[in-house]
Specification:
The complex is a heterodimer. Chain A is mostly helical. Chain A is built from 15 helices and no strands. Helices cover 78% and strands 0% of the residues of chain A. By secondary structure, chain B is mostly helical. Classes of the chains: A mainly alpha, B mainly alpha.
Protein backbone atom coordinates (compact mmCIF):
# COMPACT_ATOMS: atom_id res chain seq x y z
CA UNK A 1 0.00 0.00 0.00
CA UNK A 2 2.66 2.52 1.08
CA UNK A 3 4.79 1.52 -1.84
CA UNK A 4 1.93 2.21 -4.22
CA UNK A 5 1.48 5.72 -2.85
CA UNK A 6 5.20 6.44 -3.07
CA UNK A 7 5.42 5.25 -6.63
CA UNK A 8 2.32 7.15 -7.73
CA UNK A 9 2.21 10.66 -9.06
CA UNK A 10 -0.35 12.00 -6.60
CA UNK A 11 1.92 12.23 -3.57
CA UNK A 12 4.64 14.41 -5.15
CA UNK A 13 2.03 16.80 -6.49
CA UNK A 14 0.19 16.99 -3.18
CA UNK A 15 3.41 17.57 -1.21
CA UNK A 16 4.68 20.16 -3.66
CA UNK A 17 1.37 22.01 -3.70
CA UNK A 18 1.10 22.09 0.10
CA UNK A 19 4.73 23.18 0.63
CA UNK A 20 4.69 25.76 -2.14
CA UNK A 21 1.31 26.96 -0.91
CA UNK A 22 2.83 27.65 2.50
CA UNK A 23 5.78 29.36 0.83
CA UNK A 24 3.49 31.57 -1.19
CA UNK A 25 1.63 32.84 1.87
CA UNK A 26 3.84 35.96 2.25
CA UNK A 27 3.46 36.73 -1.46
CA UNK A 28 -0.29 36.27 -1.32
CA UNK A 29 -0.62 38.31 1.84
CA UNK A 30 1.38 41.22 0.45
CA UNK A 31 -0.58 41.23 -2.79
CA UNK A 32 -3.93 41.11 -1.04
CA UNK A 33 -3.04 43.80 1.48
CA UNK A 34 -1.78 46.09 -1.27
CA UNK A 35 -5.30 46.24 -2.71
CA UNK A 36 -7.17 46.71 0.59
CA UNK A 37 -8.80 49.90 1.84
CA UNK A 38 -7.76 50.95 5.36
CA UNK A 39 -10.86 49.47 7.04
CA UNK A 40 -9.96 46.01 5.78
CA UNK A 41 -6.25 46.41 6.53
CA UNK A 42 -6.51 47.23 10.22
CA UNK A 43 -8.88 44.57 11.51
CA UNK A 44 -8.44 41.35 13.44
CA UNK A 45 -9.16 38.61 12.49
CA UNK A 46 -7.75 39.72 9.14
CA UNK A 47 -9.65 39.77 5.86
CA UNK A 48 -8.40 37.07 3.51
CA UNK A 49 -10.14 38.23 0.38
CA UNK A 50 -10.61 41.98 -0.01
CA UNK A 51 -14.30 42.80 -0.23
CA UNK A 52 -13.70 46.16 -1.85
CA UNK A 53 -10.42 45.92 -3.73
CA UNK A 54 -8.89 49.30 -4.47
CA UNK A 55 -5.74 50.75 -6.02
CA UNK A 56 -5.83 53.62 -3.54
CA UNK A 57 -2.74 52.31 -1.62
CA UNK A 58 -0.67 52.57 -4.81
CA UNK A 59 -1.94 56.07 -5.54
CA UNK A 60 -1.26 57.25 -1.96
CA UNK A 61 2.17 55.62 -2.02
CA UNK A 62 3.26 57.94 -4.80
CA UNK A 63 1.55 60.87 -3.10
CA UNK A 64 2.79 60.35 0.46
CA UNK A 65 6.32 59.18 -0.33
CA UNK A 66 8.85 60.15 -3.06
CA UNK A 67 8.30 56.70 -4.48
CA UNK A 68 8.72 57.60 -8.15
CA UNK A 69 12.14 59.00 -7.28
CA UNK A 70 13.06 55.77 -5.46
CA UNK A 71 12.02 53.72 -8.47
CA UNK A 72 13.93 55.93 -10.87
CA UNK A 73 17.11 55.66 -8.76
CA UNK A 74 16.82 51.89 -8.54
CA UNK A 75 16.34 51.58 -12.28
CA UNK A 76 19.29 53.84 -13.17
CA UNK A 77 21.66 52.16 -10.69
CA UNK A 78 20.61 48.67 -11.65
CA UNK A 79 20.71 49.11 -15.42
CA UNK A 80 24.12 50.78 -15.31
CA UNK A 81 25.54 48.09 -13.04
CA UNK A 82 24.09 45.28 -15.15
CA UNK A 83 25.48 46.75 -18.36
CA UNK A 84 29.00 47.25 -17.00
CA UNK A 85 29.20 43.97 -15.10
CA UNK A 86 27.79 41.84 -17.91
CA UNK A 87 30.04 43.39 -20.55
CA UNK A 88 33.22 43.04 -18.47
CA UNK A 89 32.13 39.69 -17.05
CA UNK A 90 31.60 38.15 -20.49
CA UNK A 91 35.08 39.20 -21.65
CA UNK A 92 36.75 38.03 -18.45
CA UNK A 93 34.87 34.74 -18.34
CA UNK A 94 35.77 34.07 -21.96
CA UNK A 95 39.42 34.87 -21.38
CA UNK A 96 39.62 32.68 -18.28
CA UNK A 97 37.84 29.80 -19.94
CA UNK A 98 39.40 29.66 -23.40
CA UNK A 99 42.95 30.95 -23.02
CA UNK A 100 45.85 29.77 -20.94
CA UNK A 101 47.72 32.72 -19.52
CA UNK A 102 50.12 33.28 -16.71
CA UNK A 103 47.88 34.79 -14.06
CA UNK A 104 44.71 32.85 -14.91
CA UNK A 105 44.90 30.61 -11.85
CA UNK A 106 45.63 33.52 -9.52
CA UNK A 107 42.81 35.58 -11.00
CA UNK A 108 40.31 32.79 -10.61
CA UNK A 109 41.44 32.28 -7.03
CA UNK A 110 41.02 35.97 -6.28
CA UNK A 111 37.48 35.88 -7.70
CA UNK A 112 36.50 32.97 -5.47
CA UNK A 113 38.20 34.69 -2.53
CA UNK A 114 36.18 37.83 -3.30
CA UNK A 115 32.99 35.82 -3.07
CA UNK A 116 34.02 34.62 0.40
CA UNK A 117 34.64 38.13 1.78
CA UNK A 118 31.39 39.13 3.49
CA UNK A 119 30.00 42.35 1.98
CA UNK A 120 29.32 43.52 5.53
CA UNK A 121 33.07 43.40 6.23
CA UNK A 122 33.90 45.68 3.30
CA UNK A 123 31.04 48.05 4.03
CA UNK A 124 33.14 50.30 6.27
CA UNK A 125 36.22 50.63 4.01
CA UNK A 126 33.91 51.12 1.04
CA UNK A 127 32.08 53.86 2.90
CA UNK A 128 35.39 55.55 3.76
CA UNK A 129 36.37 55.46 0.07
CA UNK A 130 33.02 56.81 -1.03
CA UNK A 131 33.22 59.68 1.43
CA UNK A 132 36.82 60.51 0.48
CA UNK A 133 35.75 60.62 -3.15
CA UNK A 134 32.86 62.92 -2.23
CA UNK A 135 30.33 60.44 -3.56
CA UNK A 136 28.09 60.19 -0.49
CA UNK A 137 24.41 60.33 -1.43
CA UNK A 138 24.98 59.82 -5.14
CA UNK A 139 23.83 57.14 -7.54
CA UNK A 140 27.49 56.60 -8.54
CA UNK A 141 28.36 55.36 -5.05
CA UNK A 142 25.76 52.61 -5.34
CA UNK A 143 26.80 51.68 -8.86
CA UNK A 144 30.39 51.24 -7.62
CA UNK A 145 29.23 49.09 -4.70
CA UNK A 146 26.96 46.96 -6.86
CA UNK A 147 29.75 46.35 -9.36
CA UNK A 148 31.89 44.96 -6.53
CA UNK A 149 29.02 42.86 -5.21
CA UNK A 150 28.02 41.28 -8.53
CA UNK A 151 31.15 41.11 -10.67
CA UNK A 152 32.83 37.98 -9.24
CA UNK A 153 29.66 35.90 -9.53
CA UNK A 154 29.07 37.13 -13.09
CA UNK A 155 32.55 36.05 -14.20
CA UNK A 156 32.22 32.66 -12.53
CA UNK A 157 28.88 32.02 -14.26
CA UNK A 158 30.23 33.08 -17.66
CA UNK A 159 33.37 31.03 -17.25
CA UNK A 160 31.40 27.91 -16.42
CA UNK A 161 29.25 28.43 -19.51
CA UNK A 162 32.25 29.05 -21.77
CA UNK A 163 33.94 25.93 -20.40
CA UNK A 164 31.30 23.95 -22.28
CA UNK A 165 31.44 26.11 -25.39
CA UNK A 166 32.13 24.06 -28.56
CA UNK A 167 35.75 24.87 -29.38
CA UNK A 168 35.25 23.74 -32.98
CA UNK A 169 32.98 26.72 -33.67
CA UNK A 170 35.73 29.16 -32.75
CA UNK A 171 38.37 27.24 -34.67
CA UNK A 172 36.14 27.20 -37.76
CA UNK A 173 35.68 30.95 -37.56
CA UNK A 174 39.42 31.55 -37.19
CA UNK A 175 40.10 29.29 -40.19
CA UNK A 176 37.57 31.32 -42.17
CA UNK A 177 39.72 34.37 -41.55
CA UNK A 178 38.03 35.82 -38.48
CA UNK A 179 40.32 37.53 -35.99
CA UNK A 180 40.04 36.39 -32.37
CA UNK A 181 38.00 39.47 -31.57
CA UNK A 182 35.89 38.90 -34.67
CA UNK A 183 35.19 35.34 -33.59
CA UNK A 184 34.25 36.56 -30.13
CA UNK A 185 31.87 39.20 -31.43
CA UNK A 186 30.38 37.29 -34.37
CA UNK A 187 30.29 33.70 -33.11
CA UNK A 188 30.81 33.36 -29.38
CA UNK A 189 28.58 36.15 -28.10
CA UNK A 190 25.57 35.40 -30.33
CA UNK A 191 25.77 31.67 -29.58
CA UNK A 192 26.02 32.37 -25.84
CA UNK A 193 23.09 34.79 -25.80
CA UNK A 194 21.12 32.74 -23.29
CA UNK A 195 24.09 32.38 -20.96
CA UNK A 196 24.70 36.11 -21.15
CA UNK A 197 21.01 36.67 -20.43
CA UNK A 198 21.29 34.48 -17.30
CA UNK A 199 24.23 36.51 -16.08
CA UNK A 200 22.53 39.81 -16.84
CA UNK A 201 19.30 38.83 -15.09
CA UNK A 202 21.06 37.61 -11.95
CA UNK A 203 23.21 40.75 -11.87
CA UNK A 204 20.10 42.86 -12.37
CA UNK A 205 18.25 41.22 -9.49
CA UNK A 206 21.23 41.34 -7.15
CA UNK A 207 21.81 45.02 -7.60
CA UNK A 208 18.11 45.80 -7.52
CA UNK A 209 17.81 43.90 -4.23
CA UNK A 210 20.89 45.42 -2.59
CA UNK A 211 20.13 47.24 0.63
CA UNK A 212 22.83 47.73 3.27
CA UNK A 213 25.37 49.57 1.08
CA UNK A 214 22.64 51.79 -0.35
CA UNK A 215 21.32 52.47 3.16
CA UNK A 216 24.70 53.67 4.41
CA UNK A 217 25.69 55.60 1.27
CA UNK A 218 22.50 57.54 0.67
CA UNK A 219 20.44 59.86 2.83
CA UNK A 220 18.00 61.74 0.59
CA UNK A 221 15.28 60.62 -1.83
CA UNK A 222 17.33 62.06 -4.69
CA UNK A 223 19.66 59.06 -4.42
CA UNK A 224 17.85 56.44 -2.33
CA UNK A 225 16.77 53.27 -4.13
CA UNK A 226 13.45 51.57 -3.58
CA UNK A 227 14.76 49.11 -0.94
CA UNK A 228 15.97 51.96 1.26
CA UNK A 229 12.80 53.95 0.62
CA UNK A 230 10.59 51.12 1.80
CA UNK A 231 12.76 50.50 4.86
CA UNK A 232 12.66 54.17 5.83
CA UNK A 233 8.90 54.23 5.52
CA UNK A 234 8.34 51.40 8.00
CA UNK A 235 10.46 53.31 10.51
CA UNK A 236 7.76 55.96 10.76
CA UNK A 237 5.67 56.09 13.92
CA UNK A 238 2.52 55.30 12.00
CA UNK A 239 3.04 52.76 9.22
CA UNK A 240 0.54 52.68 6.36
CA UNK A 241 0.63 48.93 5.94
CA UNK A 242 -1.47 48.68 2.83
CA UNK A 243 0.74 51.28 1.18
CA UNK A 244 3.83 49.45 2.41
CA UNK A 245 2.57 46.24 0.86
CA UNK A 246 1.96 48.11 -2.38
CA UNK A 247 5.53 49.43 -2.17
CA UNK A 248 6.94 46.00 -1.35
CA UNK A 249 5.10 44.55 -4.29
CA UNK A 250 6.64 47.12 -6.61
CA UNK A 251 10.08 46.59 -5.09
CA UNK A 252 9.70 42.85 -5.71
CA UNK A 253 8.25 43.31 -9.20
CA UNK A 254 11.44 42.84 -11.27
CA UNK A 255 12.09 39.63 -9.34
CA UNK A 256 8.54 38.37 -9.85
CA UNK A 257 8.63 39.17 -13.57
CA UNK A 258 12.02 37.56 -14.20
CA UNK A 259 11.10 34.49 -12.17
CA UNK A 260 8.16 33.82 -14.46
CA UNK A 261 9.53 34.85 -17.86
CA UNK A 262 13.13 33.72 -17.42
CA UNK A 263 12.96 30.93 -14.86
CA UNK A 264 15.12 28.58 -16.93
CA UNK A 265 17.95 31.09 -17.29
CA UNK A 266 17.85 31.94 -13.61
CA UNK A 267 18.02 28.31 -12.56
CA UNK A 268 20.85 27.56 -14.98
CA UNK A 269 22.82 30.60 -13.94
CA UNK A 270 22.43 29.98 -10.23
CA UNK A 271 23.33 26.32 -10.50
CA UNK A 272 26.33 27.06 -12.74
CA UNK A 273 27.69 29.85 -10.58
CA UNK A 274 27.13 27.97 -7.36
CA UNK A 275 28.66 24.70 -8.46
CA UNK A 276 31.71 26.48 -9.82
CA UNK A 277 32.14 27.99 -6.41
CA UNK B 1 46.65 36.96 -35.26
CA UNK B 2 47.88 39.98 -33.46
CA UNK B 3 47.90 38.55 -29.97
CA UNK B 4 49.12 35.27 -28.72
CA UNK B 5 46.68 33.26 -26.61
CA UNK B 6 48.53 34.22 -23.48
CA UNK B 7 48.16 37.92 -23.98
CA UNK B 8 44.65 37.77 -25.35
CA UNK B 9 43.22 35.99 -22.30
CA UNK B 10 44.93 38.47 -20.02
CA UNK B 11 43.74 41.42 -22.11
CA UNK B 12 40.14 40.21 -21.86
CA UNK B 13 40.53 40.12 -18.09
CA UNK B 14 42.14 43.54 -17.82
CA UNK B 15 38.93 45.56 -17.16
CA UNK B 16 37.88 42.97 -14.59
CA UNK B 17 41.30 43.10 -12.99
CA UNK B 18 40.90 46.84 -12.48
CA UNK B 19 37.59 46.20 -10.72
CA UNK B 20 39.09 43.51 -8.53
CA UNK B 21 42.11 45.63 -7.59
CA UNK B 22 40.32 48.91 -6.98
CA UNK B 23 36.97 47.64 -5.76
CA UNK B 24 37.95 44.61 -3.74
CA UNK B 25 41.61 44.31 -2.87
CA UNK B 26 42.04 47.98 -2.00
CA UNK B 27 39.00 48.07 0.34
CA UNK B 28 40.19 44.76 1.79
CA UNK B 29 43.58 46.32 2.49
CA UNK B 30 41.82 49.34 3.97
CA UNK B 31 39.80 47.03 6.22
CA UNK B 32 42.95 45.42 7.61
CA UNK B 33 44.59 48.82 8.05
CA UNK B 34 41.56 50.43 9.74
CA UNK B 35 41.27 47.50 12.13
CA UNK B 36 44.72 48.44 13.45
CA UNK B 37 43.80 52.08 14.09
CA UNK B 38 42.17 53.77 17.04
CA UNK B 39 39.48 55.33 14.91
CA UNK B 40 36.45 56.14 17.06
CA UNK B 41 35.47 59.51 15.58
CA UNK B 42 36.08 61.11 18.98
CA UNK B 43 39.82 61.12 19.60
CA UNK B 44 42.46 61.69 16.92
CA UNK B 45 43.22 58.64 14.77
CA UNK B 46 46.35 56.83 15.95
CA UNK B 47 47.90 53.45 15.35
CA UNK B 48 46.58 51.01 17.93
CA UNK B 49 48.15 47.70 16.97
CA UNK B 50 45.90 44.90 18.08
CA UNK B 51 44.04 47.20 20.48
CA UNK B 52 40.72 46.89 18.68
CA UNK B 53 40.91 43.13 18.65
CA UNK B 54 41.69 43.00 22.35
CA UNK B 55 38.81 45.38 23.07
CA UNK B 56 36.58 43.24 20.89
CA UNK B 57 37.43 40.02 22.68
CA UNK B 58 36.83 41.70 26.02
CA UNK B 59 33.47 43.06 24.96
CA UNK B 60 30.64 41.01 26.45
CA UNK B 61 28.29 42.04 23.64
CA UNK B 62 30.68 40.63 21.02
CA UNK B 63 30.48 37.15 22.52
CA UNK B 64 26.77 37.54 23.09
CA UNK B 65 26.17 38.40 19.42
CA UNK B 66 28.33 35.46 18.30
CA UNK B 67 26.20 33.18 20.44
CA UNK B 68 23.04 34.61 18.90
CA UNK B 69 24.31 34.24 15.35
CA UNK B 70 25.37 30.64 16.02
CA UNK B 71 21.83 29.73 17.07
CA UNK B 72 20.37 31.68 14.17
CA UNK B 73 22.75 30.33 11.55
CA UNK B 74 22.52 26.66 12.55
CA UNK B 75 18.72 26.73 12.85
CA UNK B 76 18.26 28.58 9.57
CA UNK B 77 20.55 26.18 7.73
CA UNK B 78 18.79 23.14 9.20
CA UNK B 79 15.33 24.47 8.37
CA UNK B 80 16.49 25.47 4.88
CA UNK B 81 17.98 22.04 4.21
CA UNK B 82 14.84 20.33 5.44
CA UNK B 83 12.51 22.58 3.43
CA UNK B 84 14.69 22.54 0.32
CA UNK B 85 15.02 18.75 0.44
CA UNK B 86 11.27 18.19 0.89
CA UNK B 87 10.50 20.49 -2.02
CA UNK B 88 13.21 19.10 -4.29
CA UNK B 89 12.18 15.49 -3.61
CA UNK B 90 8.54 16.15 -4.43
CA UNK B 91 9.30 18.40 -7.40
CA UNK B 92 11.78 15.99 -8.96
CA UNK B 93 8.85 13.71 -9.79
CA UNK B 94 6.65 16.39 -11.23
CA UNK B 95 6.54 16.63 -14.99
CA UNK B 96 3.33 18.41 -15.84
CA UNK B 97 3.57 22.09 -14.95
CA UNK B 98 7.17 21.73 -13.74
CA UNK B 99 7.87 25.16 -15.18
CA UNK B 100 5.23 26.79 -12.98
CA UNK B 101 6.27 24.93 -9.83
CA UNK B 102 9.89 25.92 -10.31
CA UNK B 103 8.97 29.55 -10.82
CA UNK B 104 7.11 29.51 -7.52
CA UNK B 105 10.04 27.78 -5.83
CA UNK B 106 12.55 30.50 -6.75
CA UNK B 107 10.18 33.41 -6.19
CA UNK B 108 11.24 34.14 -2.57
CA UNK B 109 14.89 34.20 -3.69
CA UNK B 110 14.10 37.04 -6.10
CA UNK B 111 12.42 39.23 -3.48
CA UNK B 112 14.85 41.77 -1.94
CA UNK B 113 15.80 40.51 1.54
CA UNK B 114 14.90 43.77 3.21
CA UNK B 115 11.47 43.66 1.54
CA UNK B 116 11.03 40.09 2.83
CA UNK B 117 11.73 41.47 6.29
CA UNK B 118 9.04 44.12 5.81
CA UNK B 119 6.55 41.55 4.55
CA UNK B 120 7.21 39.21 7.50
CA UNK B 121 6.93 42.11 9.92
CA UNK B 122 3.45 42.73 8.59
CA UNK B 123 2.56 39.04 8.78
CA UNK B 124 3.88 38.82 12.36
CA UNK B 125 2.05 42.01 13.36
CA UNK B 126 0.81 41.55 16.95
CA UNK B 127 -2.37 43.48 16.16
CA UNK B 128 -3.39 42.52 12.65
CA UNK B 129 -1.08 39.60 11.87
CA UNK B 130 -2.15 36.84 9.55
CA UNK B 131 0.19 34.36 11.26
CA UNK B 132 -1.47 34.87 14.64
CA UNK B 133 -4.85 34.34 13.04
CA UNK B 134 -3.85 31.17 11.18
CA UNK B 135 -2.18 29.67 14.26
CA UNK B 136 -5.26 30.49 16.31
CA UNK B 137 -7.51 28.89 13.70
CA UNK B 138 -5.41 25.72 13.76
CA UNK B 139 -5.61 25.81 17.54
CA UNK B 140 -1.89 26.10 18.29
CA UNK B 141 -2.27 29.33 20.25
CA UNK B 142 -5.15 31.02 22.06
CA UNK B 143 -4.13 34.66 21.99
CA UNK B 144 -2.42 36.60 19.17
CA UNK B 145 1.27 35.89 19.04
CA UNK B 146 3.77 38.69 19.48
CA UNK B 147 7.34 38.07 18.41
CA UNK B 148 8.14 41.47 19.89
CA UNK B 149 7.13 40.48 23.40
CA UNK B 150 8.81 37.11 23.61
CA UNK B 151 12.58 36.63 23.31
CA UNK B 152 12.45 33.05 22.02
CA UNK B 153 9.66 33.74 19.57
CA UNK B 154 11.61 36.67 18.14
CA UNK B 155 14.49 34.34 17.30
CA UNK B 156 12.07 31.80 15.82
CA UNK B 157 10.53 34.62 13.80
CA UNK B 158 13.77 35.70 12.14
CA UNK B 159 14.80 32.07 11.55
CA UNK B 160 11.53 31.31 9.73
CA UNK B 161 11.69 34.53 7.71
CA UNK B 162 15.33 34.05 6.73
CA UNK B 163 14.82 30.40 5.82
CA UNK B 164 11.98 31.48 3.57
CA UNK B 165 14.45 33.46 1.48
CA UNK B 166 17.03 30.63 1.43
CA UNK B 167 14.91 27.56 0.70
CA UNK B 168 14.68 28.44 -3.04
CA UNK B 169 18.44 28.31 -3.61
CA UNK B 170 18.82 25.06 -1.67
CA UNK B 171 15.79 23.63 -3.47
CA UNK B 172 17.14 24.51 -6.91
CA UNK B 173 20.56 23.03 -6.23
CA UNK B 174 19.08 19.80 -4.82
CA UNK B 175 16.47 19.58 -7.58
CA UNK B 176 19.14 19.88 -10.28
CA UNK B 177 21.12 17.13 -8.53
CA UNK B 178 18.09 14.84 -8.18
CA UNK B 179 17.16 15.26 -11.83
CA UNK B 180 20.64 14.18 -12.88
CA UNK B 181 20.32 10.84 -11.04
CA UNK B 182 19.57 8.16 -13.62
CA UNK B 183 16.12 6.58 -13.17
CA UNK B 184 17.66 3.25 -14.19
CA UNK B 185 19.33 3.11 -10.78
CA UNK B 186 15.97 3.31 -9.02
CA UNK B 187 14.42 0.71 -11.29
CA UNK B 188 17.27 -1.68 -10.67
CA UNK B 189 16.97 -1.15 -6.93
CA UNK B 190 13.23 -1.72 -7.04
CA UNK B 191 13.73 -4.96 -8.92
CA UNK B 192 16.06 -5.98 -6.11
CA UNK B 193 13.27 -5.18 -3.67
CA UNK B 194 14.64 -2.01 -2.09
CA UNK B 195 12.01 0.10 -0.35
CA UNK B 196 11.59 3.84 -0.74
CA UNK B 197 13.68 4.62 2.34
CA UNK B 198 16.48 2.33 1.24
CA UNK B 199 16.50 3.85 -2.22
CA UNK B 200 16.74 7.31 -0.67
CA UNK B 201 19.54 6.34 1.70
CA UNK B 202 21.65 4.26 -0.69
CA UNK B 203 21.05 5.85 -4.10
CA UNK B 204 19.74 9.38 -3.77
CA UNK B 205 21.70 10.58 -0.78
CA UNK B 206 25.20 9.55 -1.92
CA UNK B 207 24.59 11.01 -5.39
CA UNK B 208 23.35 14.39 -4.24
CA UNK B 209 25.80 14.79 -1.37
CA UNK B 210 28.18 17.03 -3.34
CA UNK B 211 25.57 19.58 -4.46
CA UNK B 212 23.95 19.41 -1.02
CA UNK B 213 27.29 20.38 0.55
CA UNK B 214 27.51 23.39 -1.78
CA UNK B 215 23.97 24.40 -0.82
CA UNK B 216 24.77 23.97 2.87
CA UNK B 217 28.00 25.94 2.59
CA UNK B 218 26.36 28.88 0.87
CA UNK B 219 23.35 28.88 3.19
CA UNK B 220 25.57 28.78 6.28
CA UNK B 221 27.93 31.48 5.01
CA UNK B 222 25.14 33.80 3.92
CA UNK B 223 22.90 33.40 6.94
CA UNK B 224 25.88 33.97 9.22
CA UNK B 225 26.34 37.49 7.92
CA UNK B 226 22.77 38.50 7.09
CA UNK B 227 21.16 41.55 8.62
CA UNK B 228 18.95 42.76 5.75
CA UNK B 229 15.96 40.75 6.86
CA UNK B 230 16.49 41.30 10.59
CA UNK B 231 16.64 45.10 10.32
CA UNK B 232 12.99 45.69 9.43
CA UNK B 233 11.71 42.63 11.29
CA UNK B 234 13.09 42.96 14.82
CA UNK B 235 16.02 45.40 14.52
CA UNK B 236 17.99 43.11 16.83
CA UNK B 237 15.32 43.25 19.52
CA UNK B 238 13.26 42.87 21.58
CA UNK B 239 16.00 43.83 24.00
CA UNK B 240 18.86 42.09 22.27
CA UNK B 241 17.02 38.84 21.56
CA UNK B 242 17.97 38.83 17.86
CA UNK B 243 21.21 40.78 18.12
CA UNK B 244 23.30 38.69 15.72
CA UNK B 245 26.99 39.33 15.01
CA UNK B 246 26.25 41.25 11.80
CA UNK B 247 24.20 43.66 13.87
CA UNK B 248 27.10 44.16 16.24
CA UNK B 249 29.31 45.28 13.34
CA UNK B 250 26.47 47.35 11.90
CA UNK B 251 26.01 49.23 15.18
CA UNK B 252 29.74 49.96 15.39
CA UNK B 253 29.52 51.60 11.94
CA UNK B 254 26.16 53.34 12.26
CA UNK B 255 25.57 54.02 15.95
CA UNK B 256 28.76 54.12 18.01
CA UNK B 257 30.82 55.21 14.97
CA UNK B 258 33.81 53.30 16.29
CA UNK B 259 35.30 52.53 12.89
CA UNK B 260 38.36 50.77 14.30
CA UNK B 261 36.18 48.31 16.19
CA UNK B 262 33.88 47.93 13.18
CA UNK B 263 36.87 47.02 11.02
CA UNK B 264 38.13 44.52 13.59
CA UNK B 265 34.63 43.04 13.69
CA UNK B 266 34.64 42.88 9.89
CA UNK B 267 37.93 40.98 10.02
CA UNK B 268 36.50 38.50 12.53
CA UNK B 269 33.46 38.03 10.31
CA UNK B 270 35.75 37.36 7.37
CA UNK B 271 37.80 34.81 9.33
CA UNK B 272 34.74 32.97 10.58
CA UNK B 273 33.26 32.88 7.06
CA UNK B 274 36.53 31.54 5.67
CA UNK B 275 36.64 28.97 8.45
CA UNK B 276 33.12 27.80 7.56
CA UNK B 277 34.13 27.55 3.89
CA UNK B 278 37.33 25.67 4.79
CA UNK B 279 35.46 23.16 6.95
CA UNK B 280 32.96 22.41 4.19
CA UNK B 281 35.67 22.10 1.54
CA UNK B 282 37.64 19.80 3.85
CA UNK B 283 34.63 17.54 4.46
CA UNK B 284 33.72 17.37 0.76
CA UNK B 285 37.32 16.60 -0.26
CA UNK B 286 37.71 13.89 2.35
CA UNK B 287 34.51 12.16 1.35
CA UNK B 288 35.00 12.51 -2.38
Amino acid sequence: MMEKIFRGRALPYATAIILLGLMMLPVYWTTVTAFKPDVETYVFPPVYLPRNPTIEPFRLLFEDYPFSSYLKNSIVVTLTTTFIVTAIGVLAGYGLSQFKFKWAGTLLWILVFTRIIPPLSLLLPFYLLVSWLGLVDTLTSMILANIYLTYPFAVLIMKSFFDNFPRALIDAAVVDGCSRTGALLKIVIPVSATAIASTAIITYLWSWNEFIYAFVFTSTPSAQPVTVGCFDAIGDIFVNWNQMCAGSLMAALPGIIFVFIAQRYLVRGLAAGALKF
Amino acid sequence: MRFSGRWYGFLLNLPGLVIVLLWVLFPAFLLVYTSLLRYDNVRPIVFAGLGNYIALFQHRLFWFSLQKVAIFCVSTTALTLFGGMALALSMARITKGAWFFRSLLILPWAVPAVISGIIWKWMFSPDFGVISDLLMKVGLIDTPLSIYGNFDMAMVGIIVADSWTRVPFMGIILLAALLSVSPVLYEAAMVDGAGALHRFAFITLPLIKGPAMVGLLITTMFSFRTIDIIMPLTAGGPGRATYVFGYYIWDQIIKTLNFGMAAAGGMVLFFITSLIAAIFVYISRREA
